[in-house]
Amino acid sequence: MSTKSRLAAEPAPMTTADDQTAAPRMRADARRNEEAILEAAKIVFARSGVDAPIREIAAQAGVGLATLYRRFPTRADMVAAVFRREVDACADAAGALAAQHRPGEALAAWLMRYTRFIATKQGLAAALHSGDPAFAALPDYFRKRFEPALSMLLEAAALSREIRAGVAAYDLLRAIGNLAVASDDGGAAHTERMVMLLIDGLRYGATKPGRPGP
Fold first, then answer.
1. pLDDT, mean over the chain
2. How many domains does the structure of the chain reveal?
3. Are residues 121 and 170 in the same domain?
4. Which of 152, 192, 193, 194 is nearest to 169 (CA)?
5. 149 within 8 A of 138, measured Cβ to Cβ
């Protein structure tokens, strides 16, 4: 009997209960490792910038270099994943803040959260403009997630007459980004003071309750 015929005649190995439970367990372990790596990278990047040694990230995450590279073959892959994760967390906070606070307070709180997000991304701007294909989709992702979140907060605050209407979310996002870049010498505290002035500016011209609009 040929080797091909002999293989066809042999029954396939049986899948045991242990095999069936091993795969989900491995997937769960992989997810935990990925989350640990991304959280560690977030901490290390905030402390040392996106060019921090990979070994430092692996040590922070409590995983081996092989595990880290298996999930993120290049530094750019890791930077992009950390960026998307942090964008998602910041954007999702808009809904939570809207449920907990008055519209104007929710808006101010989210803008400060966004400001801190920008301030902790050392070296990110340079990475985004490096030409690496891993970063190509990130500017669009940034706008896709942040612009609707901020638009929702702006519209709610305008309807409650706590800020003036007609403020474009993208303009405000860019203004804060520019402030963060221009305030490198003054640090995060200076940027936050400037953003508070922006928030005060949003309140100027708001229609007070009980008064007709213009």
1. 82
2. 2
3. yes
4. 152
5. no
Query: Are 54 and 75 in contact, with CB atoms under 8 Å apart?
Result: yes
Q: Are residues 33 and 79 in the same domain?
A: no
Boundary residue ending a domain (56, 73, 90): 73
Q: Are the CB atoms for 89 and 72 separated by under 8 Å?
A: no
Tokens (6 digits) for 58: 């692996």
Residue 110 belongs to a domain: yes
Residue numbers of the domain that contains 149: 75-214
Tell me: the pLDDT tens digits for 57-115? 999 999 999 999 999 999 999 999 998 999 999 999 999 999 999 999 999 999 999 99
pTM: predicted TM-score of the whole model, two decimal places: 0.76
Which residue from 57, 62, 64, 59 is spatially nearest to 81, judged by alpha carbons? Answer: 57
Cα(150)–Cα(199) distance, rounded to whole angstroms? Answer: 13
**For residues 152-180, average pLDDT:** 93
